[in-house]
From TrEMBL:
Chain ranges of the Phosphotyrosine protein phosphatase I domain: 9-153
GO MF terms held by the record: acid phosphatase activity; non-membrane spanning protein tyrosine phosphatase activity
Reaction(s) catalysed by this chain's protein: O-phospho-L-tyrosyl-[protein] + H2O = L-tyrosyl-[protein] + phosphate; a phosphate monoester + H2O = an alcohol + phosphate
Recorded superkingdom: Eukaryota
Listed Pfam families: LMWPc (PF01451)
Top-level class of the enzyme under EC nomenclature: hydrolase
Active site as annotated: R16, D127 (proton donor)
Protein name, as recorded: Low molecular weight phosphotyrosine protein phosphatase
């Protein structure tokens, strides 16, 4: 469509998805495509609604020159009806999203794993919450590869 829309989703919306959202926003800005994309991220659960991303996610992004002011929110029925793409991080996200989308009339979003776009074929982006800085860096690298490939495909 002329106005492609995208949503990035993961379970708590404080680690992986804010990184993916911020990375994608920067890629879109670098390519001067802001007029074509609306980018957001949301959680499947309501655990962290209103919270800022994990401080390790923020410092990882900052190390790569990226800022974000994202506050966690939960995915809504409208998200399934307005976004063209809902990209998630792992199989349990995928199951939850497919289950939720089945309860939505006229769901137009294509729901898939962000990792399906990874040229290095790392399908799952593991939650770094219980890990360390290195794990957040791994998530960043995966998100960057996947978002680049995704943008190339739909650009």
């Amino acid at each position: 469509s002329e106005n492609s829309l995208e949503s990035l989703v993961s379970i708590g919306n404080i680690c992986r998805s804010p990184i993916a959202e911020a990375v994608f926003r920067k890629l879109v800005a670098d390519e001067k495509l802001e007029h074509k994309w609306r980018t957001d991220s949301a959680a499947v659960s309501d655990w962290n609604v209103g919270r800022s991303p994990d401080s390790r996610a923020l410092s990882c992004l900052r190390n790569h020159g990226i800022e974000t002011a994202h506050k966690a929110r939960q995915i809504t029925k409208e998200d399934f009806q307005t976004f063209d793409h809902i990209l998630c991080m792992d199989e349990s996200n995928l199951r939850d999203l497919n289950r939720k989308s089945n309860q939505v009339k006229d769901c137009k979003a294509k729901i898939e794993l962000l990792g399906t776009y990874d040229p290095q074929k790392q399908l799952i982006i593991e939650d770094p919450y219980y890990g360390n800085e290195k794990d957040f860096e791994t998530v960043y690298e995966q998100c960057l590869r996947c978002c680049k490939a995704f943008l190339e495909k739909y650009h």
